[in-house]
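As a representative case, the lines below give one protein's residues and fold tokens.
***
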Amino acid sequence: MDGQILTISLGSWMELPDLPLRDSMKSGDSRASVSTVANYYSNYVERKGLRKYFKNGNFVTSVRKVLRPEATNVRCLACEEPYFFGREIHLCELLTNNQIWEVHGFSEQTKKSFCYLTPNVVLAVGGNDIPNSLRVSGENSPFVLKSLNTFEQLLDSGELNDKSDPVLIVGAGLSAADAVIAARHYSIPVIHSFRRGVADPALIFRQLPPTMYPEYHKVYQMMVDGGENYPGYRSLPQHEVVKILPEKTVLVQGPLSSGKIKVSYVILLIGSRPNLNFMPKSGLGLGFIPDAYVTTMGNSVAVDCFSMECVTQQGLYAMGPLIGDNFVRFAQGSALSIAQSISRRISKV
């Protein structure tokens, strides 16, 4: 993601104890850039001596609850000692009545596997791993992109210019808006297709204060205008992609007519869902709709509203987009609730 893109969350929401984020922001700004926030959190980890608690570059392949661990040479995260079941009473066993979480994975750099045992697991994987699908013919064509990062890399490569066929950006969320902003920054012609009408109150742009989010308000103005006063941009409200043809032609259907559009690329930014493949049944049963997979909209993880502990799994917590909270916050967010819940449980042992 372009490091100069401003965060949706206010800077004050993302501030951590004892290190003001505002000192790293431009004077008077209420929102920080992505790169500013990334540097702030990295500096916080170093200054507070927290590096030893981070295991970067590791890939988790399995998280499951077990009565007795089957793996050997594992470590208990509760007491940070090698775990040998039956040798002694472990904090894991006291907290969970002998039911503990077994976490498997490997280092992406060394490919060396690991296994940890812990009484608690916090799911904080976000919700952008698996792009949603249009389920139309041609969707997997090489000129169809489903990532804002990939689109930004394409723009940086210089392959497209103001003489190129337009890019078709599909979607009416903030990622689609970011794509419109990025494309117009490079003077790339844009056709913007979305299913909702411009007056639909469910549009995210209608829920954001214009003075605080001026760049998104500008995109919304362009959507409403249709492109008459914005050369190089044309919006297609209430349109759907019907088919993507091999010759870089897209068939779209509107409320009154249909037509074909010649494009250079199609940018599909219609939402995404989290990847919980490391959980039993890929997380099936964790959402409010038990027989459906977890999504960030419509079927978030069902948690206790005070502790953020999953209602169906003791010792399993979730936060962020997994529970429908798409804003990054510290004091008002879920992290403190989870820490408090775990601390209280430990204090009773």
Observations:
- The chain has a mean pLDDT of 86.
- DSSP finds six helices and 17 strands in the chain.
- The longest strand covers residues 58-66.
- The two ends are 45 Å apart (CA to CA).
